[in-house]
Design a protein that fits this description.
homopentamer, Rossmann fold, alpha/beta
Chain lengths: 156, 156, 156, 156, 156
């Protein structure tokens, strides 16, 4: 049985997990999903850890929302290092979906970014879990983006 | 018996731990609280560690106060990484309540931020400890803030 | 049997792995190559770890592409720390080939940088794997560059 | 027998360790002190580690001096993370006394900052070692400063 | 038998290792030296690790050269954290000699900085290895510099 962990926050302003679960359920109907909601991004690593280590999840997808101030970005560095260390400890993927409050000025634009990023990264997770190491290789170097339109490859 | 650790500093300018303990005692009257006061934020991780590992606390809440200079922010990065690594090591929550000296110009405003943040995060800790992984899920993506009014979700 | 791991991303805009594999195959025809494609740079460390630890690769070469925004650079810090920690854990080389989107304004220039960097670092890996600790010593302090022309040594 | 480790550098411009040892000896006449001098701040963590792990020190106090350039501050980040990780590994306090070259323009002012900070943090160490977790609790949130006059608490 | 490891890069523009080996051989004629050359600074930690852990070196001295761009400085942070973590793991000194491309505008000046820094730090390593913890204590707080003239202590 495949188990996927989902970590999100009450700080975020869009329910990205819901979007991702739609994609995950559609593509992995056989999987079990365990959701874990924490206050903010610095609480995400321990939640992801507990889902991987204690709940036996095979992978985790996390949804962070980062404020626009410099200290928020510093918290983002700590989050990123934490999730990478966790992945080195466990050998399992933690797909980190992060939206930065200052990526767009208009809330409607932020909303679109968040939903698109959540859904596309959910699909990335599906591909990695079902297809393994080379599942994404046909897209290698193709300039794919999550939250924005793909920019495409640069050719000679 | 539930044990909650509380770490604060002599550098801070508001007794945030007192505010948090009020909330914690009211909502977890059965719990035992162990307080540990250190000089500044870089001393917080080892105190939190000792409360979790040696005293057997189930979770810790920490209260940091960060100066306004760039090097203070760099200390904040180190603190944040340290607390995240500690959580990865122990699998237990360390709710990190931090106030930045430059969040407000007026001391009275800083005071309000600190008290609000301490009390709301204490409640977050209560919910996580009593309700588990999905206790906060109804607030996921709802734009909750600690120290400020909630900003609310962005809807399509 | 020598096993070399290759990690790249779908975020990148040039298929650097292909360039590197050309060089690797030509110089190590006896080696086996395992490729692992992930979405972005923060997914690289766990892929490299799995190639080293689970697949038994002797070394890994990774191809990252970093956006031009400050938060992209912060992700780069996390990536770099992660790959260094992985190397400390395993004692194996992970040659990290990174291109920054803002290294050049013209796409054609970025393309040249990426290809040159990938090919030269592939050759570095060959030399380290076949020649050992002193294979590169004749070039020590010689101002070699990957992605750009060598700048050469400074002499008294 | 209480053992306290003292780490300082040849880069520093004030003999802070001497000041701290005065305070430590006066308040812990029964303790043994082991001093370890290294070139600069990035050498401090391993010295502190060896004092804690190999010499069996119960705690360490370190004296760093940081240059005014940005890369000096980056070294400070690495130092801070290192000392925090060491404390997480050992569960022992490492009180980190750091002076930044750019805290004052006049050398005489820097001197005063360094001496005051060293002496006050030595006293913090005494209190933590002799009084335990709540020894500093009466000062929690009181706005104590080392190197400068206390700024005091903010009251409602 | 004393074994000293030496790590340098092909990115550097001055053969600092040669300078350091001169000093080391003169002062530790009985020691064995093992040199390991890697492409750039992010490859230094694993090389230092292998010299300490696999080759049994008692200490390592590393020679890094950092570009002038912000991302080069970010690589420097990762390098510094890596070398500190390695020292915490092994309890052995890794003396980190780093030159920043932007320390001087004139190549001849950079050359002088690099040579002076390499030779002085080699002497620091000799003193620590032969004299132990207090070998440098007579210089504590004396404002010694490597790469530049000593700035001297600040006196009251």
């Amino acid at each position: 049985m495949i188990k996927v962990g989902i970590v999100d926050t009450t700080f975020a302003r869009v329910d990205m997990a819901k979007e991702a679960v739609d994609v995950l359920r559609e593509n992995m109907p056989e999987a079990v999903f365990i959701r874990y909601t924490v206050p903010g991004i610095k609480d995400i690593p321990v939640a992801a850890r507990n889902l991987l280590v204690e709940e036996g999840c095979d992978a985790v997808i996390t949804f962070g929302w980062v404020g626009s101030k410099l200290v928020d970005k510093y918290s983002y560095i700590a989050l990123s290092i934490g999730l990478i260390m966790l992945q080195l400890m466990t050998g399992k993927h933690v797909i980190d979906v992060t939206v930065h409050e200052d990526e767009a000025e208009k809330p409607s634009e932020l909303y679109k970014i968040a939903v698109d990023r959540a859904r596309k990264h959910a699909l990335n997770l599906v591909r990695l879990m079902k297809g393994g190491k080379e599942a994404l290789t046909k897209y290698a170097g193709k300039g794919l983006r999550q939250g924005y339109p793909d920019v495409g490859p640069i050719v000679e």
